[in-house]
Amino acid sequence: MALTAAQRHWPDSLRREDGTLAIDGVRLDSLADRFGTPLYVVDVATVRRRVLAYRSALRRSYPGGSAVHYAAKAYLSTPMASLLTSLGCGFDLSSFGEATIVRAGGCSLGSSHLHGNAKSDDEIRRSLEAGIGSIVIDNRPEVGRVAAIAADLGLAASVLVRVTPDIEAETHAHIMTGQRDSKFGVPLDDLDDVGAAIARSPSLDFTGLHFHLGSQLGSPQAYARAIDVVSGAAASLRRHHGLETRVLSPGGGLGIAYAGGDELPSITEFIHAVATATVTSAAVHGLDLPKLIVEPGRSIVGPAVVALYRVMGSKTLSTNSRIIHVDGGMGDNLRPALYGAKLDAAIVGNGATRDTETVDIAGRFCESGDIICRRVRLPTPSVGDLVAIPAAGAYTVSMASNYNGALRPAVVAVDEGRALVWQRRESYADLIARDVTTIRAGR
């Protein structure tokens, strides 16, 4: 049975077949039996469709050059890097660790950039040695550090400057990044000083400007305002320092649906708004059209993944409502505890003959805040049932931890009816693999 429009927070290939949820014809209960739970299941078809939607929208909407850089922090593994490279993506990297994963996936770093507000000298050096496309300058002291390392390597390092456009987007405070006092980026008042320092540095090649407004954004209007502000800054850099903005990167941040009824712009609508604003602002400020680089992460991988948990028990509260206990939680899906993310759920097996009830789904971790879902309506869950959580691809496995000595979950991708292990489940041996000292017991 095909999903309805209100169910599109689930992967594109998910269906209920003979009463049981399946992705691309592969039953989720069979995957849980084979690989254990918690388990993260990737619908590769959804990833492909979303990347191609970005690329197609850019071709239709923007008359200049363009590129898609996947925001690796959302979720990254070597198979994911290989898949995205095959689809024509570069990468927006937060660390040299992410760059290492991309390279292990057989991917070049030449069409990627390294950002971050506290990059170490070692990360900068390693990235330049590895052929990174650009380094994103995040603050004034970084200019001298990148210039010195590039000079020592005999390079003219391509740099973007991340600016803070002083635009507050409508999202949770923890994932808002474009406001004046964000920890990220060069304030507009300091951009002239940074531009002058770059212009004086023969080992730096100024490529363009970068900004980011935040994550899980629902309106493209803030992008239009920010693009106009940043285009004005580009005109000022050219006028005062001869620096040409050849690349404009307005980041990513497009939100996704996490429950039925969530209404957000489509990829096409988002790109059309960004492209139109870039063309208009370039004309207003007398700029050549820059290469437009967008950096989606959540909106590519988020809807492509389902998290599977096994029901281990339950508890009836004084209000007569129930908490359902499952075998995962904040150790593999931190977002609900971190900033109150609201998630949906479904029973994997056939629950059509059961009564329904409204329940909370609690994780197994030793924290009262470890509640994965609140007030979700489900066929009455029983011990042993499998619960599926949609929109689980972004900022779940990438933020997973070993809190309480838990093992980080496996990630399995389904592609054209085949199940492929992308990341194996951790073992108990993995938990102690980094421990190097043994304290001997007393006499």
Domains, number: 2
Count of alpha/pi helices: 12
Provide the gyration radius in Å.
23 Å
Examine the coordinates and then state which fold CATH places here, giving the name of the CATH topology of the largest domain: TIM Barrel
Instruction: Describe the largest sheet.
Output: 9 strands, mixed
CATH architecture assignment name of the largest domain = Alpha-Beta Barrel
Q: For the record, what is the CATH homologous superfamily label of the largest domain?
A: Alanine racemase
Task: Specify the structural class.
Answer: alpha/beta
Ends distance: 68 Å
Number of strands: 21
Describe this structure in words.
This protein is of the alpha/beta class. It has two domains: 5-44 and 302-431, Lyase, Ornithine Decarboxylase, Chain A, domain 1; 45-301, Alanine racemase (TIM Barrel), CATH 3.20.20. Helix content is 29%, strand content 24%. The chain has twelve helices and 21 strands. The chain has helices spanning 28-35, 44-61, 78-86, 96-104, 121-129, 140-153, 191-199, 221-241, 267-284, 298-301, 335-339, 428-431; strands at 14-17, 20-23, 26-27, 39-43, 66-71, 90-93, 113-114, 134-137, 157-164, 186-187, 204-210, 247-249, 291-294, 305-316, 322-326, 346-347, 356-362, 371-379, 386-389, 410-415, 418-423. The strands form three sheets. Strands 4, 14, 15, 16, 17, 18, 19, 20 and 21 form a nine-stranded mixed beta sheet that branches. Strands 5-6-7-8-9-11-12-13 form an eight-stranded parallel barrel, surrounded by five helices. Strands 1-2-3 form a three-stranded antiparallel beta sheet. α9 links the parallel β12 and β13. The relative contact order is 0.16. Residues 1-6 and 169-179 have low confidence and may be disordered.
